[in-house]
């Protein structure tokens, strides 16, 4: 009975450690995380709509990019219908996320596409005009 708790195990004289297979898998630089989808999206492969808040077991990796010292992370998930890979990454400039591939973000009515595409000079001119009015 005390043998089951023993710290020393018997090693035979003909033991070769190179023959024994280890259970350790090759580790990649991706971490497994559990996350909720930050926005609704549609899979480009099968057309399945995936709603905001759906929880996924995702892989997270650092992209070696930064914005004002803030790390940018990339997330990998699988489509719930076709198991196609979907990737999106953080966008600290706009405090949001950007869909990279595998899915398209659904339309959001509170975003003005004209304001998103305007340059800094156009934005400055627009704000000065609004201030004068």
Automatic annotation (TrEMBL):
<dbReference type="GO" id="GO:0071006">
    <property type="term" value="C:U2-type catalytic step 1 spliceosome"/>
</dbReference>
<dbReference type="GO" id="GO:0000398">
    <property type="term" value="P:mRNA splicing, via spliceosome"/>
</dbReference>
<dbReference type="InterPro" id="IPR007590">
    <property type="entry name" value="Saf4/Yju2"/>
</dbReference>
<dbReference type="Pfam" id="PF04502">
    <property type="entry name" value="Saf4_Yju2"/>
</dbReference>
<protein>
    <recommendedName>
        <fullName>Splicing factor YJU2</fullName>
    </recommendedName>
</protein>
<feature type="region of interest" description="Disordered">
    <location>
        <begin position="108"/>
        <end position="133"/>
    </location>
</feature>
């Amino acid at each position: 009975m005390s043998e089951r708790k023993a710290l020393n195990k018997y090693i035979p004289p003909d033991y070769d450690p190179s023959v024994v297979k280890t259970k350790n898998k090759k580790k990649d630089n991706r971490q497994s995380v559990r996350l909720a989808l930050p926005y609704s999206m549609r899979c480009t492969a099968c057309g399945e709509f995936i709603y905001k808040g759906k929880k996924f077991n995702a892989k997270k990796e650092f992209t070696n990019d930064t914005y004002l010292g803030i790390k940018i992370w990339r997330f990998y998930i699988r489509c719930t219908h076709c198991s196609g890979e979907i990737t999106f990454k953080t966008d600290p400039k706009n405090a949001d996320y950007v869909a990279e591939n595998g899915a398209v973000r659904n339309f959001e009515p509170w975003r003005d596409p004209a304001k998103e595409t305007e340059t800094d000079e156009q934005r400055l001119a627009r704000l000065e005009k609004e201030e004068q009015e």
